[in-house]
Design goal:
Distance between the termini: 41 Å
Number of helices: 21
Helix content: 55-70%
Largest sheet: 3 strands, antiparallel
Number of strands: 5
Length: 459
Amino acid sequence: MPRPGCGFSGTTAMEGGVMTASGTKEEDRIRNEVLCKHLEHLGWSVSGFARRVRERCQAVGLPHTVCPSTVSRWCKGSAVPSAELAAAACHVLSAALHRYVTPESLGWSSGTAQVAAESLEYRDVPHAVCMLSQLWVLDSMRRRSVVKSAFSASVFGPASREALVMPADAVIGGRGPHKVTAADIDLLDEQTWLYGRLDSQHGGGKFRGVFASMMDTHATQMLNGSFSARTGRRLYGSVVDAVLAMASMAYDDQLPGLAQRYDLQAMRLAQAIGDRARITRVHIHQARLAATQGGQEDVLAHARSAVLAAEGSPALVRAYASVTEARAWALIGRPDHVVAAVKRAREFFSRAQGGTGPAWLEWFDRRELEGQAAWAFAVAELPEQGVQALKEASAVPSDRTRDTVELLITEAKLARLRGDVSEPGVLARRASRLSQHLMSRRLAERLSRLIADEPLHDF
């Protein structure tokens, strides 16, 4: 980590996050016209911009003291900021100009390749916080070339084992400049709920960038803020919920690399607070991602890990894990195991009726359970059980457009299994009409596979 400072070195060095070059002649320096024009347009002095960047660094926990002389060297072209300091400066400019300003537009390096690699590492909480803040910046800028980085099946196994066996972190509290309040966390929870609804109505590719921008602005400051252990446990849980919602959106937008990176860092925060239910949710996410990559054995391994993680959790969480296991067994062609897993899921759900589950699982009602079971039965080629489950899953609320399309796809698959010639086509056309406004690359591909009568390999 670069040390704080803002001096100028006579040799090539990193000073306060600023790369300086030795022996640069005055006439050889290339003035950063783009940066200078931004500052002129905003009416900001060098000192004013330095102060704003310094405040951003303080808010997100970067150890840089940005002086006016630092900004002056940026403007003259005699120095460039490090990747993390460039991100802070661009955040300040983007917020003021109401449009995204990228490091590359200023002739600076963004360090995105490094973020893509390091965000696949499973380390400590400070690392997770740092990676999430950088992923939010990239995601808000719609940097698909980076966030679409390849899914890596090998990285999740070691992380999964650590999350399942290690105790919660001993130290949770924070000592940053921003004091985190209950109202801050309430706002985060409300935003997660809001964007979850928008995701169901419009698809994962519609508003995820806006959600990422909100997280970059508010959640990063909170994670680097001041809070007690009690507040920290609630804060980390709320951030996990938001990050997993974003991971689901990325999955829906066919960005498995981004979804996996979100999942990994979310699991580290869940591990820090010893939240087995949320760790279960991460494993379920990974099972879905593995299915899109064709790794059937990995799908089952993640689903079984979800079942193990859910032991001792509320019955509703165990129902969610069990029906995921049923879907995994369906993919590898074990109908007997599908029937048994669905039975367990239904039993756990019945137990949950008398109690409460976690807030993040409020959407998992009887219709959702039976809809997922119907998919498992369809893939396992058990049409009678699938049709019965589908009856229980009907009448999905109108604001859950994507769920309705998913059920129509399952219904068409079951109709084909029953030997119906015309009904699958009718259902496919209806699903296509309903999905026209959805920004869901995954759903579009599923519809294409349905029309071509190809296997439904993902869930």
